[in-house]
Amino acid sequence: MRPRLAVGFILTTLAIDAMGIGLILPVMPDLLRDLTGGSLAEAALWGGLLTTAFAVMQFLFGPTLGALSDRFGRRPVLLVSLLVMAADYLVMALAGTVWLLLAARLVGGITAATHATATAWIADISRPEEKAARFGLAGAAFGLGFVLGPLAGGLLSEFGTRAPFWAAAGLALLNLGLGWAVLRETVTGRIRRAFDWRRANPFGAFRQMGRLPGVQRMLLLVFLYEFAFLVYPATWAYFTAARFGWEARTIGLSLAAFGIAVALVQGGLIRLVLRRLGEAGTVLWGISFNACAFLFLALVGNGTVAFVFTPLTALGAVVTPALMGLMSRRVPDDAQGELQGLVASARAVATILSPPVMTGVFAAFTAPGAPVHLPGAAFLLSMALMVACGLVHVAHLRAARPG
């Protein structure tokens, strides 16, 4: 029973990661407009800045926390991260200025180790052939969080723009108590690795991992894919408000529908796709589907059609677990935490760059006096990035082909 509870805690941690994001997404446009007194386009730019600030800290400290978990264990890193996460949401719930929100995002980014360390824990307990499917299960937990988070955030918005932050803090504290009671340590003497500052930073970690065949290309693919996919959290609330006139409740419901579909795809469908296409083929399928989905969203003009199509976009969500399975196979057991920290840094670089780019494109094509009114312009950019992902993946497969 205790091992099952530990797995449940890990999956709950991943779900809360997504819930924390999804809970606050529906209220961010209104909250930022209240704090800044600006327009929707200006609120979108502030939202991009907050996301970027969080990502800068995650980029700088992700490998450090991954290396710490390789040395001292997954349990202490996860529990401390949850504690700081709860405090971060409490500060955001009480913030009276946009600058305090920014400070909270900086601190939260430093200790944003929950996702990377949780996936390292999953890698620790999985055989090589099990990793992609189990990473899919982790993705399903994240998708479930995206179901509950936006739905709850949209409903809680009826009680004010601060209510979702209080709820997110409470969830983090409850999960911290569960982890303290049930989580076992998976870093044993066999795989424990000494902490080395030369590797515990994104630049040193990248050099170290770059010595392993093919890992650099896969990290580039992670970066490009994440950059493109971030168009959803960066612009969805603003895009749907501008294109279809959706309010917070409808935005929350649409994100919940997307999360349900992600959970179904990564929790079940991915196993069938992996069995039929293998990890490399699954990555290629997901990239191709996402490119088509972005093109459709860029051009769709009917809100009902967009709402119905939203959960179908999750069919491309097989990319991340399949890619993580490919990468994890190439890394020694004593460096799984370092790998996950480096993946977190690659994603963080994308998160640093993507939100201001995506929200900037949105603002440029929706601001008064824009040469062309096109709220979906950012999705066209994401489609082009998916094409680039496909080229990188094909180049990797050709380089890895023997002879």
Order of helices and strands: HHHHHHHHHHHHHHHH
Which fold name corresponds to the CATH topology? Answer: Growth Hormone, Chain: A
Name of the level-1 CATH class? Mainly Alpha
Instruction: Decide which structural class fits the backbone.
Output: mainly alpha
Number of helical regions: 16
Helical fraction: over 70%
Number of folding domains? 1
How would the global form be characterised?
Answer: globular
Name of the CATH architecture: Up-down Bundle
Radius of gyration: 20 Å
According to CATH, the homologous superfamily is MFS general substrate transporter like domains
Number of strands: 0
* Low-pLDDT sequence parts: none
Query: What's the story with the biggest beta sheet?
Result: none
Distance between the termini: 49 Å
Strand content: under 5%
Mean pLDDT: 81
Q: Could you characterize the architecture of this molecule?
A:
With 403 residues, the chain is mostly helical. The protein has a single domain (2-184, 198-400), classed as Growth Hormone, Chain: A (Up-down Bundle), CATH 1.20.1250. The chain has 16 helices and no strands. The chain has helices at residues 2-24, 28-36, 40-72, 74-94, 98-110, 114-124, 131-156, 163-182, 202-210, 215-229, 231-244, 248-299, 303-309, 319-329, 336-366, 377-400. Helix 1 (2-24) runs antiparallel to helix 6 (114-124), helix 7 (131-156) packs across helix 12 and helix 11 packs parallel to helix 15. It is globular and about 60 Å long. The N and C termini lie far apart (49 Å). The mean pLDDT is 81.
In brief:
With 403 residues, this protein is mostly helical.
